[in-house]
Amino acid sequence: MRCEIKFKDISLYLDGEYGQKKREALEVHIADCPRCSKRIDEIKTLRASLNNLAPIEESSGFDFEFNRLLDERLQGQKEHTLKARIQDAASKIMDTVIIPIPVTVKIAASFLLVVSLAWSIRVQSLQKIPFIEFCAGEARIYRQADNDWIATKPRMRLKAGDKIKLGTGAVVNIASKGRYKARLKDESLIVLSKLDSGLRNIDTDFSISYGKLLVNTTEKFKGSSMRIYTPACDAEVVGTAFIIEVLQKQTWIGVLEGRVRLLSKTHPLKTGEVKRISTYVSAGQEASTPLYSYSTMPELLSDKEWKSMLELYQLIEKPQVMLLLGTGYNRVDEFLQKPAQVYIPASIKRTIPDEVLEAINNVTQATKKGDLELIKDATTKLQSVIQKHPGEQYSVEILMFIASHFHYARDYRSALMTLEEVKTHYPDSEFASLAQCSIAAIYQDDLKDFNKANMIYSQLIKTYPSSADAIKAKEILSAQN
Amino acid sequence: MEVENIVIRAKEGDREAFNELYDAYKRPILNYLYRFIGNRHCAEELTQETFIRAYTNLHRYEPKAKFSSWLYRIAGNLARNFLRHASYDKRVRPVKMDPYSDASGDVLSAENIACPSKKPDENAHKKEIEEIIQQAIDLLPVHLKEAVILCDIKELSYEDAAKIMKCRPMTVGSRLWRGRKKLAELLDYMKNGEKKDEMRN
């Protein structure tokens, strides 16, 4: 007879799960069946071996770690409950204070909120809309709504389509709050052809038929745009201070800061597709565009032009002495060619010691006379004065000014020392790379120590790799090879 | 019911009382988890987690069930969760899965599993055998493993195990015999496999 008892039955039997009747029947069978007895042994052995497995103990530090973890978790929970408590309080306020308010009051309140929000946005964007800040002389504005030329008045807000016409000697200042200021001068005719005011930006397009426009933008101008259409070319502003002068046959532009992009125009009667040529005029450069022709290559501003550019600083003044110098990679040539000039805004004149101002003035006077010894003396005097009264707003600029004048007076040793001072004391200033480049240039051109010059050039490339002067240094080094 | 009194004190926020419970149950829980997972380090981490959960959820515990059953259930849930994600965690199975490739070379027979202490050199030997048994347990499916650990290692009754496993007592019985059968087969497999190896040599 084959044994029909399964593993399951034996297992349950051993665990005492079967009733008396079934158990007895099984016991009878097992007594005769070697297979089942073997299986019982097997399960018993297994159970014994499992039961005999040695218990493990926790490793050292277990309790400590547990208590640390528990404390950490409880701390986290406490923070969590604090959050929940705040939420509870908020909902309580909601329930007891806000919900019982009558619906009409609630609607009125939310309406008020929306209106005031809209109003503040409107005020924000209105503030950016350009207005006439100041006007003098014969200046008239033409508005389509009025259909007449009327005299400009201060605080007049401009609209797209407005035309402004100026007589000889007249001046109109246009300001967009926080974005830019523009000045219209002398005999000019300008049309505000486009005016888009966004939440943060303002896009302004001017069309100038003739006349002179000065524009100085602030740091907030980023994101805004300005285009100036003239008969000869279009100018696009890239964060900048510049002057644009529109004459009958050409447009002249001088840039003090930033960059302006010029787009040439073709003769209106010329047919076929003609490429518009764009020219970038960088800081310290000027370019003119004849009518129906391409712009001239941008050139460095002349002394006289520099002086005229200073008017831009009257529009937006920075609380700092300005070294009148471009930012292009040729600025080292510019810097060493002629004695540099500084512009001192009226607003900070009070904060600069009189002694310093006087010393600067003396140097300028000496330069005008052209007596090298006199320049050297005046510059040495200024150097000692500036050492006595250093100031954040002017120290670097005036040191550069001094270096430039020493160089002009052929006192190379003093020039080098001053430049070294700039390099070591103001390594983060915008002039540090220029100072180093100038040192190298002086070694190269004036002292004829080419090895030293090359060494300093390569040092410059390493220390200020992204500066404009590094480009110049690379150019010089590659020209030698 | 001394334990229940301590639990009540612990429920009221008495950390000392909870520490008493912790001291009493940490080793049973640690061993339970160790058999369940087969890795000492992970078992210790999960034991700590078990007691942290017990402490933070003490208000949910109802004295209907035994406190130990409640703890075992928390530990079991953690272990199951852990094993579900274990394939991502190589710490869990430091030993090789294939019993054939086990290089311990020890003959596993019924008597030295049952009475390891009879043999000389027994400590090392016992350890090796325990390792083999643990390997076999590791290879069991989770629900069978739970039944085997609770009933055969922890020696709980079907009823107690059923409370922990949240199933009927008869289900425990059925899982238990299937687990035992599988375990016996696995151990047999290892034994015969090694014999075959010997013959080959």
Can you characterise this structure?
The complex is a heterodimer of chains A (481) and B (201). With 481 residues, chain A is α+β, with helices and mostly antiparallel strands. Chain A contains 16 helices and 15 strands. In chain A, helix 8 (331-337) packs across helix 14 and helix 12 (395-408) packs antiparallel against helix 13. Chain B has 201 residues and is an all-alpha fold. Chain B contains nine helices and no strands. Classes of the chains: A alpha+beta (481), B mainly alpha (201). The interface between A and B is large, with 33 and 41 residues.
Topology, pairings included?
The complex is a heterodimer of chains A (481) and B (201).
Chain A: H1 7-14, H2 20-32, H3 34-51, H4 62-98, H5 103-128, E1 131-136, E2 139-143, E3 148-151, E4 163-166, E5 171-176, E6 180-197, E7 202-217, E8 225-229, E9 233-246, E10 250-264, E11 278-282, E12 285-290, E13 299-300, H6 303-309, H7 311-315, E14 322-323, H8 331-337, E15 342-343, H9 346-349, H10 354-369, H11 372-388, H12 395-408, H13 412-425, H14 432-446, H15 450-463, H16 468-480
Parallel strand pairs in A: 7-8
Antiparallel strand pairs in A: 1-5, 2-3, 2-4, 4-6, 5-6, 6-7, 7-9, 8-9, 9-10, 10-11, 10-12, 12-13, 14-15
Helix pairs in contact in A: 1-3, 2-3, 8-14, 10-11, 11-12, 12-13, 13-14, 14-15, 15-16
Chain B: H1 2-11, H2 15-37, H3 40-56, H4 67-84, H5 110-114, H6 122-138, H7 142-153, H8 158-165, H9 169-200
Helix pairs in contact in B: 1-2, 2-3, 2-4, 3-4, 4-8, 7-9, 8-9
- Mind summarizing the main beta sheet of chain A? 13 strands, mixed
* Number of DSSP-assigned strands of chain B: 0
Proportion of residues in β-strands of chain A: 15-25%
Going by CATH, what is the homologous superfamily of the domain at 318-480 in chain A?
Tetratricopeptide repeat domain
SSE string of chain B, helices as H and strands as E:
HHHHHHHHH
Task: Identify the CATH class of the domain at 318-480 in chain A.
Answer: Mainly Alpha
